[in-house]
Amino acid sequence: MQVLALICFAGSLMLARAQHSLPELARLTGCWREAAQQALAELQQRLEARGQPTDMAQLLRHLGIDPHLVRYDTEEQEFLPPNGT
């Protein structure tokens, strides 16, 4: 379900960019980040449930995801609000 939501957001992002709607692009980017944060948190929980404890920074490195892209603060070890600057 979340993968489908990410795909829909990606399509909406491309459409907003093509239409040069910066406020809409910012809103959709925030939606994408929120969905990505939720998916990453769920993945981490599932890995831990399978006996593979991992911290989020380690998971992001393993997946090749820049923590800034999904607004993860590696020092505080928490996600920041998806729409922040």
UniProtKB/TrEMBL annotation:
GO terms for cellular component: Swi5-Sfr1 complex. One of its GO terms (molecular function) is transcription coactivator activity. GO terms for biological process: double-strand break repair via homologous recombination. Keywords: Signal. Residues 1-18 form the signal peptide. It comes from the Eukaryota. This is Swi5-dependent recombination DNA repair protein 1. It comes from Amphibalanus amphitrite. The lineage of its organism: Eukaryota, Metazoa, Ecdysozoa, Arthropoda, Crustacea. The gene is sfr1.
